[in-house]
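REVIEWER CHECKLIST
Item 1: Sequence provided? yes
Item 2: Single chain? yes
Item 3: Sequence as submitted:
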Amino acid sequence: VPTAPAQPLRVTTWNLQPPASTNAIRIPAAADALKKLNPDVILLQQVTDQAMCEALAEALKPAQYQVVICSAFREARTGALRKQQVAILARADARPYYSWSEAWHNRGAPALPGGLAFAALEVGNQRVGLFSLQAGTPPAAPAGKKQRAASLEERQTATIEQLLAKVGSVTNWVANRVQVF
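Item 4: Structure as written out by the authors:
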């Protein structure tokens, strides 16, 4: 099989929710730091919504970034949009060909807040798969400490199992197979 040198791919993960700050402060501060890093792909956690992702892409100009995927996780009880989402931004020359997001689930028990976003990109002649994840801390329960610890461990295990199942499903693709994660 002939080989060729791979094109470098700079991936950065960034959490946009520092304590007690507003979007007016977060976006410019994050954009300044990210411009110095000059990533090809940005994996985001704790974004509020699609508009925040688009505002960050705009703030990164003159570099051209596109919002590949931004989750829209909802509160289980109210159906309201959660305040903490995950997203993936990529430079315009990275061509996304498949993406999705999914909240964590836990076989009938309450799941951890958060979830995952996935994007498959063509970068040069390579197909790359990327996940951006967020697993929040569950609200404190009135139960005893041992019961809470067991419940949290079960939720974390379910989250890891869900992620591994998604990775496994992508590795089994026949068409447009991802070559690198």
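Item 5: Key structural point noted by reviewer: Residues 73 and 79 are 9 Å apart (CA to CA).
Item 6: Recommendation: ____
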